[in-house]
Write a structure and sequence with these properties.
- About 35% of the residues lie in helices and about 20% in strands.
- With about 290 residues, the chain is of the alpha+beta class.
- Strands 1, 2, 5, 6, 8, 10, 11, 12 and 13 form a 9-stranded mixed sheet that branches. The chain has a two-stranded antiparallel sheet with strand order 3-4.
- The longest helix is centred in the middle third of the chain and has 28 residues, at about 130-160.
- The chain is globular.
Length: about 290
Amino acid sequence: MKGVGDEAKMTAVMVQHLFSHLTAGNDYVIDNRSKNLPKYCPCEMENCKALIKNGCTALGSLQTWHGYADIILNQNIAVSLLECPSKEKNQCIETDDKFEEENLSDPIQIDKDEEAGPSSPKRICKDDNDNEEKETQSQQMIDRVIAQTITNAFSQVSKTPALSGWLIPTFGCALDHVIAVLYDPKNDVLLQCVDKIPIWGFNGLYLPSIVQIWMFLNFTVFTFKDLADDYELKRSNFHVLAKYRLEDYRKIKPGKAFNPTYDCDYYSDVLIRMRKKGKKAHKKLAEH
C-alpha cells in the first residue's frame, strides 16, 4: 500500500468491496500514512465513489513491539499487506513440506516447528533462482505479521476483556491471496492457516475462500473460547520468552484509543531475540 499508486487503488477497492462487506457495518480503517491512497473508491462501478476511510492504525506501545497495521477491520482485526515480487519471475508457495501432507480442509493448524518461541513459515515468496536476499525479505514479512498478530491480540483483550480466551486473527494480504495467523493471549496459543487462501478463481472471487475469510472476521460467532483446553493445543512459549515485558503487553491499548505517533515501524530483531532466549531457556532445562 505504501508503494505504487496502482497498488493503493487496488487495496482501496478490495477493502471497500470485499473485506468491509464481510464485517458488520462495513467497518474498516486504512492507515492514513499510506501513499497515493485515493479519497474515493477508484473502482469502475457506476455511482460508487464511496469515501475511503482512513485513520490511525497504530499498534503496541513504546515498551513493546510497535508499528502500524495497513488496515484495521471491524475495529479488532489487523491486516498487513504483503509485498511479493512480480509474478513473471516469482511464484508464491507453501514452504513447509509437512503442510502438503496435512488435511487441507482444516482451516487452522499449529506450526510444528520445534524451535522455541513463536514460529513461522520460512518464507512466503520464493524466487525461481532461490535468491537469498528475497528469502530474507519474505522472512521479515512473515515475522511482521506474527508480531502484529501477538500485539494486536493483547491490545484487543485489553480494550475488550470479553475477548480473553479467543483466538484473534490477523491477516497478511497480497493482491491474489491471504494468509491468516491467530493468537490467544490468555492461553498463549499461536496458530497459522495451513495454506494460503486464494482470493480469485477462474470466474472472479473464489467463494470458498470468501466464506473462510468471513468466518475468520466473525471469529466470536464461529469459534469458541479456550480452544486450547478443549484440543490440548501446544503453547507458543511467548509468555516465557517475553516474561519481563508481559505486563506491558497486557496493558497495550489499540492505536485508536491513544493515537500515538511513531517515527518508524519496529520489526527488526524482536523475534530473533526471542528465539535466541528460547534456545538458552531450553538448554538450561536440559541441564537440570
